[in-house]
Write a structure and sequence with these properties.
By secondary structure, the chain is an alpha/beta fold. It is 30% helix and 30% strand. It has six helices and seven strands, in the order βαβααβββαβαβα. The chain has helices spanning 15-22, 34-43, 45-50, 83-86, 103-110, 125-128, and strands at 2-9, 26-30, 53-56, 59-60, 65-71, 94-101, 113-118. A four-stranded parallel beta sheet has the order 3-2-1-7.
Length: 135
């Protein structure tokens, strides 16, 4: 385990990432929405430049590859692999293709974290299933 490492899976607007960075952690943030990933990089340029923050513009899923992801432009916290989640309450939504990675591969690349925040609209289990209790 890396005691200084936190994963923010489902970075969204970066508020949780800001909290972890302010507490001195190194953060790997995962965000499927390319617009939100770009906004995160613009919000934390010093942390990205120093290597304290890595933003992965991908989704966490069953296997590495590509998948359809639903964007809710007016309520981005509802972005999801699920069309129903993204379009709830009749809000406008549209599909984009995103890169997908297994969480196990992300942990193999960056290490086992001290803390994992997973908020990926009904797909949190995609992170949890790849956690090895031995770690």
């Amino acid at each position: 385990m890396h005691p200084d490492l936190v994963y923010d899976v489902g970075m969204n607007n970066g508020d949780d990432t800001a909290y972890y960075l302010a507490r001195g952690y190194r953060v790997v943030a995962v965000e499927a929405d390319p617009t939100l990933a770009e906004e995160g990089a613009a919000r934390f340029p010093d942390a990205v430049a120093s290597g304290r923050l890595t933003i992965l513009n991908c989704a966490v899923g069953e296997s590495d590859g590509k998948a359809q992801f639903w964007i809710c432009p007016t309520h981005k916290v509802w972005n999801s692999f699920s069309k129903e989640v993204a379009g709830r309450e009749g809000l406008p939504h549209h599909a984009i293709d995103v890169s997908v990675r297994r969480f196990a591969g992300i942990m193999a690349q960056f290490g086992v974290p001290r803390y994992l925040k997973a908020d990926i609209e009904g797909h949190d289990h995609m992170c949890l299933r790849d956690i090895d209790p031995a770690d």
